């Protein structure tokens, strides 16, 4: 089980690196687009689509890394108010519900991606990018998010991590 958890964490790290690269590339393309439009006074064709697809893709692909590092915004008033047992069960319920949502979204976005692939959808811009390429970020990112939720749930159930990442239990709550 440790090997599987390490593999999921490694893939989540790769997702984080890819998301950072997509974001950095989008920034460079925006700078290039400004230069082309305002300095050279030329039209841009592919840049707006590329930046949009890159940033949306970075959001989906970067999600497992954010979950792994607990980089999301957390409101921990309720977990802090609960005792150790309540905190544990709240973490289990939250993880199972989140896992269910991520798994459902993975299936639905995979079906959407497949539809774009089979019907040869292209963007409506002059660039005419094949939409299955940017749409792939949705099932890939959400699929990895699902795996990261499974790994987190296994770690929680086996006692490898504490609920909500809280280090010390608060006896009796607040």
TrEMBL record:
One GO CC term of this entry? plasma membrane
Pfam families referenced in this protein's UniProt entry, alphabetically: DctQ
Lipid bilayer topology:
Multi-pass membrane protein
Presence of keyword Transmembrane helix: yes
As for subcellular location, the record says: Cell inner membrane
Q: Which GO terms describe its biological process?
A: C4-dicarboxylate transport
Highest taxon of the lineage: Bacteria
**Which keywords does this chain's UniProt record carry?**
Cell inner membrane, Cell membrane, Membrane, Transmembrane, Transmembrane helix, Transport
Which ranges carry the Tripartite ATP-independent periplasmic transporters DctQ component domain? 27-158
The membrane-spanning stretches of this chain are 12-38, 50-67, 88-112, 132-151
GO MF term set? transmembrane transporter activity
By sequence similarity, the record places it as follows: Belongs to the TRAP transporter small permease family.
What biological function has been recorded for the protein in this entry?
A: Part of the tripartite ATP-independent periplasmic (TRAP) transport system.
According to the record's subunit comment, the protein's assembly and interactions are: The complex comprises the extracytoplasmic solute receptor protein and the two transmembrane proteins.
Q: What is this protein called?
A: TRAP transporter small permease protein
């Amino acid at each position: 089980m440790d090997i599987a958890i390490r593999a999921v964490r490694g893939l989540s790290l790769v997702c984080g690196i890819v998301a950072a690269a997509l974001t950095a590339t989008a920034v460079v393309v925006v700078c290039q687009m400004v230069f082309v439009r305002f300095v050279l006074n030329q039209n841009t064709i592919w840049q707006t689509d590329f930046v949009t697809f890159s940033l949306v893709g970075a959001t989906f692909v970067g999600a497992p890394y954010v979950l792994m590092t607990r980089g999301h915004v957390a409101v921990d008033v309720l977990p802090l108010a609960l005792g150790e047992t309540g905190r544990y069960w709240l973490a289990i319920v939250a993880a199972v519900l989140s896992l269910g949502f991520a798994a459902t979204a993975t299936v639905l976005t995979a079906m959407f991606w497949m539809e774009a692939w089979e019907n040869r959808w292209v963007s409506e811009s002059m660039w005419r990018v094949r939409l299955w390429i940017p749409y792939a970020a949705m099932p890939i990112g959400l699929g990895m998010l699902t795996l990261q939720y499974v790994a987190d749930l296994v770690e929680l159930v086996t006692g490898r991590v504490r609920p909500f990442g809280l280090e010390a239990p608060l006896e009796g709550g607040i």
